[in-house]
Design goal:
Blueprint (H helix, E strand, L loop, with lengths): L19 H23 L12 H14 L1 H33 L1 H15 L3 H12 L3 H25 L3 H9 L4 H38 L5 H10 L3 H29 L9
Helix pairs in contact: 2-10, 3-4, 3-6, 3-8, 3-9, 5-6, 5-8, 6-8, 8-9, 8-10, 9-10
Protein name: ABC transmembrane type-1 domain-containing protein
Keywords: Cell membrane, Membrane, Transmembrane, Transmembrane helix, Transport
Main location: membrane
Length: 271
């Protein structure tokens, strides 16, 4: 008597993991390391150290700021103004975009004035805000608020207003409420616009806060840059620029990650 046994399923071999990210990371590391070594060698030989410092001096300055707590103190001030202004500006801009979408006549009328006000360079408003609110954090928060709100409003208004008419007609046939249309149709249509707006607004908001610190502040990353420049402290000036560059890069990566998470339901080729 022959006994038939069920053959164990053969699992498909897993595809080998791509080494491309590791290779790219190694290439970038090698390029940065070569640049730093060349910079260190050139400083004092071909480059005047009074004009361009060397990487070791920059590293020592950064280490000193970390050890005595100055870096955390100034960076926390900048991040506090950035986060408060960005969140408040984004929320207010989205709510205003929703209001103008629900009241299209009011939206078309007010959009002209909003775009005209957006044409005013934010840096020109900083001296006015300093007169009104002083050199404290309020001026920086207001700069972050204005920068984020304009970008988010334009994106949200376009996304909400340009919702596919077929979906809106279907919602009308199904007798959906305004709230259901907003949450289940318009919001999803606006998500790609909002994700792109956040990706653009977050680094720009950080730069707006730092510019406000340039013009009047006794704290923040911008203050570190201005103080080093006034004292002709070249290592501190380069160290402050490195901190500012790293801050903007980290915020750009955070915004890109948020964009990826918000739009994960959309195929990559359509993003």
């Amino acid at each position: 008597m022959t006994v038939l046994t069920e053959a164990a399923p053969v699992s498909a071999p897993r595809p080998p993991r791509s080494k491309a990210p590791l290779v790219r990371a190694a290439q970038h590391t090698a390029v940065v390391a070569a640049f730093l070594v060349l910079w260190q060698v050139a400083s004092g030989r071909w480059i005047d150290p009074l004009l361009v410092t060397d990487p070791l001096s920059v590293g020592r300055q950064l280490l000193e700021w970390v050890q005595d707590g100055r870096l955390v103190f100034h960076l926390s001030f900048t991040l506090q103004a950035l986060l408060i202004g960005f969140v408040a500006g984004s929320v207010a801009a989205f709510l205003l975009a929703v209001l103008f979408t629900e009241l299209p006549r009011l939206g078309r009328f007010a959009e002209t004035y909003i775009i005209a006000f957006n044409a005013i360079p934010n840096i020109a408003l900083v001296p006015i805000f300093i007169v009104w609110f002083g050199f404290g954090i309020a001026t920086k928060i207001l700069m972050a608020y204005l920068t984020a709100s304009f970008i988010v409003f334009i994106a949200a208004f376009q996304g909400l207003r340009n919702t596919d008419a077929r979906y809106l007609e279907l919602a009308r046939i199904l007798e959906a409420s305004r709230w259901q249309v907003l949450v289940k149709i318009r919001l999803w249509a606006a998500l790609p616009f909002l994700a792109s707006a956040f990706k653009m607004a977050l680094p720009k908001t950080a730069l707006a806060v730092v510019i406000a610190e340039f013009l009047g502040s006794n704290r923040g990353v911008g203050y570190l840059v201005v103080r080093a420049s006034n004292l002709l402290d070249i290592p501190a000036l380069f160290a402050a620029v490195v901190v500012l560059t790293a801050l903007v890069q980290v915020l750009s990566l955070v915004a890109a990650f948020v964009e990826t998470r918000l739009l994960r339901w959309i195929p990559k080729e359509k993003r």
